[in-house]
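Input for the complex:
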Amino acid sequence: GENVEQHPSTLSVQEGDSAVIKCTYSDSASNYFPWYKQELGKRPQLIIDIRSNVGEKKDQRIAVTLNKTAKHFSLHITETQPEDSAVYFCAASIKAGGYNKLIFGAGTRLAVHP
Amino acid sequence: DAGITQSPRHKVTETGTPVTLRCHQTENHRYMYWYRQDPGHGLRLIHYSYGVKDTDKGEVSDGYSVSRSKTEDFLLTLESATSSQTSVYFCAISGQGGSYNEQFFGPGTRLTVL
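Predicted:
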C-alpha cells in the first residue's frame, strides 16, 4: 500500500541551530503535504502545508520544500527555540474511492536544548 | 482549536467488552476521521466518513466499526476490545473553507484494555 517514510526518528539540536526533517512518499498522485506538531499529551496541530503546484512555502521560522520528481518533502526550522521541542509528523494525501485521505509518517521527536 | 470534542477522554476496560468512543464537531465539516496513535507508527487511519451514513475503511479497520447518523457526531465502536487496541484515539475533521484536505484533530481519547 501507499506509505510515507520520515527521517530521522529523533533529532537533538542546540537552541539557535536549524533542524531539518525529511519525508518520502510513494503515491505519485499525492498533491497535498501537511506538517503537524504534537506536544506531549496534546493533539497534533497543523503548522504548515504545501500543495503540489509550489516548490517551497515559508511561515516565519518554518519552511517546507517539495521535490515532486524525487517524491520527497522536508520541514526546515531555523533559529530553533526550546518551545519547538515536540514530535513532528509529515503526511501525504492519497485519493481512494474518490475521497482524499492522509497517510502519516511515523514522526520525529525534536529536542531543542538551551 | 476547531470545535471538536471527544468523549470519554480516558477509559479503562477489560478484554472482550464493547467500547464506544464519540467525536462531536460544531464546524459542520463534511469529512470526519478516526485514527489511532501508537509509538513508532504515527497516526493510522481506522475509518472515515464523507457524509451522514457514508463511511469507509482505513488501513487498520479490523475490530472496529463506525456510525454517523448526524453531521456532528462520528462514533467509533470496538466490538470486543483486545489488549492490542490499547492506544490513543484521535478524531479529525476537514471540509470547510474551500479545502478538503486540511485536517484538524480532536483532543484524543486514551483507551487502556486490560
